[in-house]
Specification:
165 residues; alpha+beta; Immunoglobulin-like; 2 domains; 6-stranded mixed beta sheet; 4-stranded antiparallel beta sheet; 27% helix
Length: 165
């Protein structure tokens, strides 16, 4: 038998529920605070060759606005963080982009030179032989594939290294 006065035992669960509700509200508030301090992630581009793929957020991205010359210069300096993928001689290189990139239009650059026409599709395929060919100025063991967002102005840059397998 309990020694609590009549009706007091019923208040204990109410206090526990109240503490739990306050703890949950505090955790949710803390989580929202942490998320609000984060930058929005940039759209992602993916390169797939055979069964291997690499994806990356942008080296430079200004939430879809045009990048200025200083931003682009800083972008060029960040090429050390570029992901790479091996490309066999007879394989197909598949390029996939986030719909945000496609909506703005995008082109593929190889070693800094425009390689494709502008596209508003989210997916494109290119034979790997095109990336290691004297005719296209892409000879060598490694070439840099860059995706540039924007038809009239540069709104973002994604870059990958293609290594001859």
């Amino acid at each position: 038998m309990t020694t609590l006065p009549r009706g007091e035992a019923a208040d204990v669960p109410r206090a526990v529920r109240r503490r739990r509700a306050v703890a949950v509200a505090g955790a949710v508030s803390a989580g929202l605070l942490v998320l609000s301090a984060c930058d929005k992630p940039s759209p992602v581009a993916t390169i797939t060759v055979g069964g291997d793929s690499v994806n990356s957020e942008a080296l430079c991205y200004n939430d879809g606005d045009t990048l200025n010359a200083d931003s682009l210069k800083d972008c060029v300096k960040n090429t050390g963080d570029v992901k790479s993928i091996k490309v066999g001689q007879d394989e197909t290189v598949r390029i996939g982009v986030d719909p945000k990139i496609a909506d703005a239009g995008w082109v593929v650059l190889v070693n800094g030179r425009q390689f494709t026409d502008s596209s508003k599709e989210t997916y494109r395929t290119i034979p790997s032989s095109a990336f290691f060919n004297v005719q296209y100025g892409t000879q060598g063991e490694t070439n840099t594939l860059t995706i540039q967002m924007g038809e009239k102005s540069n709104k973002g840059v994604w870059s990958f290294k293609l290594k001859k397998d």
